[in-house]
Design brief:
Layout lengths: L4 H14 L11 H8 L3 H13 L3 E4 L3 E4 L8 H7 L5 H20 L4 H19 L3 H18 L3 H13 L16 H14 L3 H18 L11
Antiparallel strand pairs: 1-2
Helix pairs in contact: 1-3, 5-7, 5-8, 5-9, 5-10, 6-7, 6-9, 7-8, 9-10
């Protein structure tokens, strides 16, 4: 069995700690890390992407990957979740309940201008993911959901979701870290956008529900879904 992304990320963290690399310092190249840690380049890329998604590393095109924060203070992403009163799975469950309902409402009233803005966002997300710009992709993902929730015209529903999403922006790009599933968020956003463009309530609800469930699973977060007995 090959090394998983989380195992690769842990190995990279350990190496950074052992080498006493500080904030702003460059980590070794992928070629060096692959040889030093005996990890495949594919698993290594996913491990680095995971740490970038957690806000622990920063990638600078043409320059390399740099330590974004001091690792002596522990795992930031883990601490952020453990100090919260709810878990990431709870947040996804909340979104699973609210966002499909909101998307169904929006399908009945969305304007052409709003659809065009969503389309621009979806196109920008594709470009960001293609270029491995995970932080930008996370921002675009956040904006996409913000636009749909805002279009419903119910600030209470919007705040119920966005307040929690806003609190954990460091985890927003975790569903993007696996190379084989990198473009799935773009495909799912596009499906939602096209359903809204057709004013298809049923398709929009189904597309949003499927997207949230799959995004949760890509981020390794599981939650209970009631089934009809």
């Amino acid at each position: 069995m090959g090394v998983r992304a989380d195992q690769a990320a842990e190995a990279i963290q350990h190496l950074i700690h052992q080498a006493h690399l500080q904030q702003g310092e460059k980590i070794p190249s992928q070629r060096q890390l692959s040889a030093q840690l005996n990890i495949s380049r594919t698993a290594l890329r996913e491990g680095i992407s995971t740490l970038i998604a957690r806000g622990e590393l920063r990638s600078e095109p043409g320059r390399g990957v740099f330590v974004l924060r001091d690792h002596d203070h522990g795992d930031f992403a883990t601490l952020a979740w453990s100090n919260a009163d709810i878990s990431p799975s709870d947040v996804y469950q909340l979104r699973y309940v609210i966002e499909p309902f909101v998307t169904g409402l929006v399908a009945t009233r969305i304007t052409l201008a709003a659809v065009e803005r969503l389309g621009e966002n979806v196109a920008a997300l594709r470009s960001a993911l293609t270029e491995q710009q995970l932080e930008r992709a996370a921002d675009l993902d956040f904006q996409f959901h913000d636009m749909i929730l805002g279009a419903a015209g119910n600030p209470t529903l919007k705040e119920a979701v966005m307040t929690r999403m806003r609190s954990y922006r460091s985890s927003q790009s975790l569903p993007f870290v696996k190379e084989q599933t990198l473009m799935e968020t773009w495909r799912e956003h596009r499906r939602i956008m096209l359903a809204l463009k057709r004013h298809s309530t049923r398709s929009a609800i189904r597309a949003m529900r499927d997207h949230i469930l799959r995004a949760a699973l890509r981020g390794n977060n599981h939650f209970d879904i009631p089934t009809h007995g």
